[in-house]
Amino acid sequence: MRVAVLGASGYTGLELLRILLRHPRFELAAVTSEQRAGQPVGEAFPSLRGQLDLVFESAAEPERLAGKVDLAFAALPHAASAPAVTALRRAGVAVADLSADFRLRDLAVYREWYGEHPAPALASEAVYGLPELYRERLRGTSLVACPGCYPTSALLPLAPFLREGLVETTGIAIDSKSGVSGAGRKLDAEYLFAELEGNPHAYKVARHRHAPEIEQEASVLAGESVRVTFVPHLLPTVRGMLTSVYLRPRRPLSAEAAREVLAEAYRHERFVRVLPAGETPSLAAVRGSNFCDVAAFADERNGTLMLLSALDNLGKGASAQAVQCANLMRGLPEEMGLLEAPWVP
C-alpha cells in the first residue's frame, strides 16, 4: 500500500518515516517538505541515508500525489494542513492528519482557539484518532484527526473513570511535562539548548490549545460537560511526556480499587500498560515506542485520586499513534509495524 508523508522534515514527519520504513504493508512513495524540496532524504537527514531513496517534493499542489499514493499522513502545521487534506480527500486519498485542524468538532470552539476554520465542510467527517476510544469508527474511515500528545496522555488514564461515572467532572487538574520536540522544529529562543537545559518551566498556563480538546473528549466520556485546569511544562529533554491528573472520586476509592478500574479497562489493549501497584510511569520505559504506561494512586486522607501516565510525545503522542490509526483505516492488524520495544538506555 503506497503512502505519502506531508511535512516529512519535521520531528513528527521524521518519526513517521522511521516507523513506516519497517512497516511490512506500507510503502513510502512520496515525501514532502517546503524547505527541503528537491533535496534527497538521505542527504538532508544522514540517519536515513541508504534507507529511503526518495527526494523531498513540494506539497503546494497536493492533488498531484493522488496518482502516487493510497493514503497520506499530513504532518503539517495547523491551518496549513486543512487545505492539503481537502485536496487529497477530493482526489480520493485517505488521510491521517496530525495537525489540530480536524480535532475539534465545534467550529465555534475552533474559532476561539485557532481562528476561522480553513475547511469547515470536512470537519464533521473526521474521526478522532484515539483507538482505545474510537476503534470501531476508525475501521475503514477515510479521514482521521490524530490527537494531540497532551490529550492522549491525559485521556488514557482518565477515560475509564469518567466513563463509569466514578469521579467528579469539575475541579479536574492536569499537570503535564513534555520533551521539547513536542514544540516542533523551530528556532524560537525558548527552545534553544542554552535556554532550556537545566530550566524546566511551565508555559501557556490555563490557555493551552489542547485544553478544549481534552474537555471535548472528556465530556463525551462523562456524558456531561467537563472542564479542566491544564498546566503544561517543557522539560530539558528531547522526547517523552509525563502527565498527572488530580480529581475527586464520587465515592471513596482506594489506590487498589482505582488500579483495578484501569486494569479492567485496558486488559485487552496492546499499547496501554497498567503498571503494578506502587510503580510510577517513567520516560525511559516508553521512549521510542507506541506504549502509554498508566498508574493510579489515592490520597484517601484528602479525598484525591491521582492518575499518572508516560508516553513518547512523538510515538503514542503523535506519529506511532497515527500509524496505529492508519492500520485500522486499512483493515490491517492494529499493532503492525509498532511492536518495537522502547529504547533502553
Q: Give the termini separation.
A: 34 Å
Average pLDDT metric:
96
CATH architecture of the largest domain: 2-Layer Sandwich
Structural class: alpha/beta
Number of domains: 2
Q: What is the helix tally?
A: 11
CATH H-level superfamily of the largest domain: Dihydrodipicolinate Reductase, domain 2
Rg is 20 Å
Low-confidence stretches: none
What is the CATH class of the largest domain? Alpha Beta
CATH fold name of the largest domain: Dihydrodipicolinate Reductase, domain 2
Largest sheet: 7 strands, mixed
Strand content: 15-25%
Count of DSSP E strands?
A: 13
Describe the model:
It is a single chain. The chain has 345 residues and is an alpha/beta fold. It folds into two domains: 124 residues, 3-Layer(aba) Sandwich (Rossmann fold); 165 residues, Dihydrodipicolinate Reductase, domain 2 (2-Layer Sandwich). The protein is built from eleven helices and 13 strands. The chain has a seven-stranded mixed sheet with strand order 8-9-7-10-13-12-11. α1 packs across α11 and α7 packs parallel to α9. It is globular. It starts with a strand and ends in a 16-residue tail after the last helix. The mean pLDDT is 96.
Q: Which properties best describe this structure?
A:
alpha/beta; seven-stranded mixed β-sheet; Rossmann fold; 13 strands; Dihydrodipicolinate Reductase, domain 2; 11 helices; 345 residues; six-stranded parallel β-sheet; 2 domains
